[in-house]
Specification:
Arc Repressor Mutant, subunit A; rod-shaped; eight-stranded mixed sheet; 9 helices; D-Maltodextrin-Binding Protein, domain 2; alpha/beta; 24% strand; two-stranded antiparallel sheet; single chain; 43% helix
């Protein structure tokens, strides 16, 4: 039974007249009569009584009308819901990243997308690259911003849709012997207290590897998860630390590059290979990639 026929029957019941109903629907009266006859054949009962003033519903017609109206209403609601989603009048975006990405890449992206589509809802998770990658693989997140390479079970299910080359820089307290310098060598850090990211975090892995290659053992006095905590602890004189160049935007003169080899890492935007992004996620991805 076609939805169009149900819509036409609802109009006939409302108008109580085949000719006037046909005029409203933009069809001929014979075509409308044929549709009613076909419906009656499908349900096995007369749905309309012809009267001198038009048509009236039979008892079977009244029962059929209730179900026809419900079917039309559900179909209209389904269409409206899909149009809302496609038109970005509703929907959500779930994205995750490390401390740097969440604090310094995502705010402007969320702001831009929200300004264009104020009804969208955002879920942002701050976690290490491995945890973010796992959440994208499991479907908990639509997109992730991670440090490459991505390793672990299921890593092959991810695809990179964009990347950014980032540099890790040394920051020191005001008045420190390296304060005001533009660069450092690893041997200069032998006796320095270091405030570092947690062991096995992506940034910590890059730093530890570079230090080991230079045969320097870092004196890590504090391990934290938060980028802001590292910056505050360094400012308080607890030790020196390493942060992304992105975290020093507008104040890059404070960051020291490594003269023994710059500390680069690649940040990649990843999603599952086998899933088509929702309209909301696709818009967010487009804006994010335009800012890398």
């Amino acid at each position: 039974m076609e939805l169009t026929a149900l819509r036409q029957f609802v109009v006939i019941a409302e108008m109580g007249h085949l000719t006037r109903a046909a005029e409203r629907l933009g069809v001929t009266q014979p075509a409308l009569s044929a549709m009613v006859k076909k419906l009656e054949g499908e349900v096995g009962a007369a749905l309309l009584d012809r009267t001198g003033k038009g048509v009236a519903l039979t008892e079977a017609g009244r029962v059929f009308l209730e179900h026809a109206e419900a079917s039309v209403r559900r179909a209209d609601e389904a269409v409206a819901s899909v149009r809302e989603l496609v038109g970005l009048e509703a929907g959500s975006i779930r994205v995750g990243g490390g401390a740097t990405a969440v604090a310094h890449l995502l705010p402007s992206v969320v702001s831009a997308v929200h300004a264009e589509h104020p009804s969208l809802r955002f879920y942002v998770r701050e976690a290490g690259s491995r945890a973010v990658a796992e959440a994208v693989i499991s479907g908990e997140l639509d997109l992730g911003i991670v440090t490459t390479p991505v390793v672990g079970v299921g890593a092959g299910e991810l695809m990179s849709v964009g990347s950014l080359r980032d540099e890790l820089m040394l920051i020191v307290p005001r008045g420190h012997r390296l304060d005001g310098r533009r660069s450092f060598r690893w041997r200069e850090l032998n006796s320095e207290a270091v405030v570092a990211f947690e062991v096995d975090s992506a940034v910590r892995t890059v730093i530890d590897h570079a230090a080991n290659v230079s045969e320097v053992v870092l004196d890590v006095v504090m391990e934290v998860r938060s980028l802001e905590t590292i910056q505050r602890m360094v400012a308080a004189g607890v030790g020196i630390g390493f942060v992304s160049r992105l975290a020093l935007a507008g104040d890059e003169a404070r960051g020291l590059t490594c003269r023994d080899g710059r500390l680069h890492r690649e940040l990649a935007v990843v999603r599952r290979r086998d899933r088509v992004p929702s309209p909301a996620a696709a818009v967010f991805e487009r804006v994010l990639l335009s800012r890398l």
